[in-house]
Amino acid sequence: MIKYKAGRWSKELIEAVEITKETEYNVWFKQDRHQKRSSGTNFFDTWKEAHEYLIQKAQEQLDMYRKGAARAAIVLQDTQAYKEADNVQTN
Prior knowledge:
The protein is of the alpha+beta class and 91 residues long. The chain has one helix and six strands; from the N terminus they run ββββββα. The protein has one domain. A three-stranded antiparallel sheet has the order 2-1-6, with helices on one face. Strands 3-4-5 form a three-stranded antiparallel sheet, with no helix packed on it.
């Protein structure tokens, strides 16, 4: 049976693999057991599902970086506007 292995860190983003055994949470290929879902590699029934998963993960990562960049831009703007007199305390 063929499954599609999708990994964001492998040379091939989607690879068709011959599965020898499958349970609810695991698959076996090359005589090794692999989790169907993990942080690095996931197995899908169709190429389309694997592709959609990779697109979703890439979009999530892009959104995270955009939010981080927006926060950094605010910090930069606030820091550039900061004047010495803004923090001077008198007794």
